[in-house]
Design goal:
Helix content is about 45%, strand content about 15%. Strand 5, helix 5 and strand 6 form a beta-alpha-beta unit. By secondary structure, the protein is α/β, with parallel strands linked by helices. The chain is built from eleven helices and 13 strands. Strands 3-2-1-4-5-6-11 form a seven-stranded parallel β-sheet, sandwiched between helices. The protein has a two-stranded parallel ribbon with strand order 7-10. Bound molecules: NADPH dihydro-nicotinamide-adenine-dinucleotide phosphate and guanosine-5'-diphosphate-rhamnose. The site of guanosine-5'-diphosphate-rhamnose has 21 residues, from helix 3 and helix 6. The site of NADPH dihydro-nicotinamide-adenine-dinucleotide phosphate has 26 residues, from helix 1 and strand 5. Pfam families: GDP_Man_Dehyd.
């Protein structure tokens, strides 16, 4: 029998890479997909297996982290060996506009899942997608012992979910772990997070489809890593003998400005000619500097990152340039018809 995993947030950046990783290891993977009025499975279409296929190893289910009963039923039906809770309203700026919704899905949603595991009586290990945003204004470098000081409804919701996870480990002996992941990006990153917003704009400017890019705070410091490497760390946490919490980061700081300059330069463009400031993209309270110390993940899990910020920017620009070229070629074919 293959190992069985349930991934919430399977349609997101990390969910799609994690599903690929687990399938490559011979897992049966179940993914929780929320209902949407338009298709929201673009990142996993290439691994989709239809309901008519025999011996499916990748199965999708409609459910929602807001619906605790659906979670209990799902767990009872699937009886997974491992659960990865990646589902969340994950955008920090948006969390100021939708604070209660963010608290409900990102915070309480994690508790609903933990409680659903308890209520269903399924023995499983659970990974909670915790975040460096929990550190907020705590000065860098941040590690597992750094006190939390969140600066957004999103950060506060993640702190709630973090402690719920620790509590279920302590109260019920559950194998429940927090991965405290610093920013990680890829060509599959959502288009409104700053790295992808920049690399997508670079590709469009290069192709003559756009001239200006409007951004907010360019002085923020982040520790950007490569998403496919970070999902490997999630998996390693659930394979360890003891449940524990781990920071996952590169330890390499960069400002938003540095990422912008690297991305534009890689495409032969001058950022100064195209980038403009718009206060709309500022947050009511900002997180100035996140730089992770991932020594514990390195020493205990043997995990270490290889792709650092400048290479990451180049990978993402190259992918977006290809994407724009494909889109333009597709448009030309449509016009030809
Ligand atoms: P994404 O925003 O790309 O994906 C979020 C996923 O959650 C999507 O599949 C989304 O579905 C799903 N989701 C949203 N609301 C609900 C809901 N009510 N019920 C069920 N699912 C829902 O995030 P990432 O892949 O980047 O991140 C994965 C997790 O890791 C998130 O919890 C995020 O907060 C956390 N994290 C991310 C970091 C990063 O740098 N990427 C760093 C640290 C933590 P849909 O596709 O329909 O929108
Ligand atoms: P973050 O990522 O808030 O760190 O959360 P984001 O890419 O949104 O912002 C990073 C920094 O860039 C600044 N910034 C802008 N951000 C956006 N989105 N758009 C802009 O135009 C812009 N201009 C400047 C921001 O102010 C910020 O300082 C991400 C998410 O993936 C979370 O889910 C995750 O938990 C954390 O990373 C770790």
């Amino acid at each position: 029998m293959s190992t069985c995993a349930l991934i919430t947030g399977v349609t997101g950046q990390d969910g799609s890479y994690l599903a690929e990783l687990l399938l490559s290891k011979g897992y049966t993977v179940h993914g929780l997909v929320r209902r949407s009025s338009s298709f929201n499975t673009e990142r996993i279409d290439h691994i989709y297996q239809g309901p008519q296929e025999a011996n499916r190893s990748f199965v999708l289910h409609h459910a929602d982290l807001a619906d605790g009963v659906a979670l209990v039923n799902l767990l009872r039906d699937i009886r997974p060996d491992e659960v990865y809770n990646l589902g969340a309203q994950s955008h920090v700026r948006v969390s100021f506009d939708a604070p209660l919704y963010t608290g409900d899905v990102t915070g309480l949603g994690a508790l609903r899942l933990l409680e659903a595991i308890r209520a269903s009586g399924v023995r499983t290990r659970i990974y909670q997608a915790s975040s460096s945003e929990m550190f907020g204004s705590a000065p860098p470098p941040q590690n597992e012992l750094t006190p939390f000081h969140p600066r957004s409804p999103y950060g506060a919701a993640k702190v709630y979910a973090y402690w719920a996870t620790v509590n279920y480990r302590e109260a019920y002996g559950m194998f429940a772990v927090n991965g405290i992941l610093f920013n990680h990006e890829s060509p599959r990153r959502g288009e409104t997070f700053v790295t992808r917003k920049v690399t997508r704009a670079v590709a469009r400017i290069k192709a003559g489809l756009q001239d200006r890019l409007y951004l907010g705070n360019l002085d923020a410091v982040r520790d950007w890593g490569y998403a496919p490497e970070y999902v490997e760390a999630m998996w390693r946490m659930l394979q360890h003998d003891e449940p524990s919490d781990y920071v996952v980061a590169t330890g390499v700081p960069a400002t938003v400005r540095q990422f912008v300059d690297t991305a534009f330069a890689h495409a032969g463009l001058d950022a100064g000619e195209h980038v403009r400031y718009d206060p709309k993209y500022e947050r009511p309270s900002e997180v100035d500097a996140l730089i992770g110390d991932a020594s514990k993940a390195r020493d205990v899990l043997g995990w270490k990152p290889t792709v650092l910020v400048d290479e990451l920017a180049r990978i993402m620009v190259d992918a977006d340039v290809r994407l724009v070229e494909e889109q333009l070629a597709g448009a030309a074919v449509r016009i030809d018809r």
